[in-house]
Amino acid sequence: MTFLPLNPTIVSNGRDFYGPGGPYELFAGHECGVALAKMSFDAEFLDDLDGCKALNFGEKEELENWINKFEHWRNYPIRGRLIPNDKMPDSERFLSEEELWKNNGDGEMPEGYATAPIYIGAHDKVYDMSFGGVSFYGKGCSYNGFAGRNAARALALMSLDPADAKNSDISDLTPKEIGIMNDWKKTFEERKGYPIVGRLKV
Questions:
Q1: Which pLDDT tens digit goes with each residue over 115-172?
Q2: I want to staple 66 with a disulfide (CB 3.0 to 4.6 A). Which of 21, 29, 36, 194 is the partner?
């Protein structure tokens, strides 16, 4: 994956250019807007989102040419928007149920985001499903009932019952059910890559 300013772009079809041994392999896995704008292979220009704001007119025009080439000539799919780490919520902050509910997909869209945050609690951790999970957890989708909730019980019971989504108590669950909940958390973190954006007191 190569990153243009705010737009992660999959360039797998261009692995001859961006894969190992390719002329642009340096860009793979990095935000490379400044490097492309300056037509430079200098590593100091990688992952410099702030530098994209300081480009001169000619450099901005060159970057636009690259973006058009990726989107329209090469048809590389856009996979989202890139948000700097310092713009992401603190994963160690504690959220109240009220704060969790405010992030149910209906709130304001933070700067740089492609959609309003969709937070889902899973016992002690809070995940933002708006990073790749809108089609599952967004409005009108299968798991939208979990949005803005601590859905630990519903996950453990594999339940879509709204009553389970609203009830975060897991004290009466069996070890097997707790294991299912932990498997969901592992899936969220390792397979889906949903960012942890806070914690819940348990």
A1: 899 999 999 999 999 988 999 999 999 999 999 999 999 999 999 999 999 999 999 9
A2: 36
Which sign does the torsion angle of CA 66, 2, 92, 105 carry?
A: positive
Q: 3 and 31 in contact (C-beta within 8 Å)?
A: yes
The residue count for the chain: 202
| Alpha-carbon gap, residue 111 to 108, rounded angstroms | 9
Containing 199, the helix (H) or strand (E) segment is strand 196-199
User: CATH code at 62?
Assistant: 3.10.120.10
How many C-beta atoms surround the C-beta of residue 20 within 10 A? 7
33 belongs to a structural domain: yes
User: pLDDT (tens digit, 9 = 90+) per residue, 58-100?
Assistant: 999 999 999 888 888 887 877 667 777 777 889 999 999 999 9
- Is 99 found in the same domain as 36? no
Which DSSP string do the residues of 81-98 spell out, in sequence order? ----GGGSPPTT-B--HH
Of the residues 53, 73, 93, the one at which a domain ends: 73
Q: CA dist 43 to 26, 38, 40, 47, 48, Å? A: 8, 12, 8, 9, 10
